[in-house]
């Protein structure tokens, strides 16, 4: 898969992931005409994974994107327009000129991996268990709430994102929870979309960090992604997670930035 194919397939996977969240979160809003994807899964948290706009067709004029996005989010708490460094420089320019705020000039790297990396060695006292029922789904939620608290993700936004079994288990989605002494301490999930699978919500609770649990869950998710039929696995890396992913063999292929639009 060459870079252009990978970027297009990765953008498609990102959109599929947001569709998954919006189709499984209670009270969510979703508008999708194949050219622009608008989604809202939280009435309180304006982050890009919860209230966002993704231009699917680069030929859609940036002015149309901003007009339709503002109308969609008129009653919501603010929103983020996704900016793909490889496709949306015109959209970013228009958004900033219109008064949108740049959340991060650097953005998050889109990393990709084209080969399996193995499951790794699970140490004594630790188990990796696939999410297969509501009990394990709630364990995943508990990990996410604690792991992302320092990112200011509200509990209700996390609850909406992981509200049902369909959000974490299905034909194209799998998730895992790591437990130490029966207590959930780390988790990760992967969403497939044909040739690419995307890793999401890798987290470790604060008291268990530094012990390689994030790596084990990431390795599990990578294997699951290839088992879903992907030719490559991708993710958007946080600053804290990027060193781990690079060490595992992921390489940067692009970046995503976000422009914040305040509510009317």
Low-confidence residue ranges: none
CATH fold-type name of the largest domain: Aminopeptidase
First and last CA, distance = 43 Å
Rough outline: globular
**What is the count of β-strands?**
12
What does this 3D model show about the protein?
The protein is globular. The termini are far apart. A hairpin with a 3-residue loop joins β9 and β10. It is built from seven helices and twelve strands. α2 packs across α3 (89-97). The model has no long low-confidence stretch (mean pLDDT 96). It has helices spanning 3-24, 62-72, 89-97, 134-147, 155-161, 213-227, 242-247, and strands spanning 29-32, 36-40, 51-55, 79-84, 101-102, 108-113, 126-130, 173-180, 183-192, 196-204, 232-236, 251-261. It is an alpha+beta fold. Strands 1, 2, 3, 4, 5, 6, 7, 8, 9, 10, 11 and 12 form a twelve-stranded mixed β-sheet that branches. It has two domains: 3-110 and 255-261, no CATH class; 126-254, Aminopeptidase.
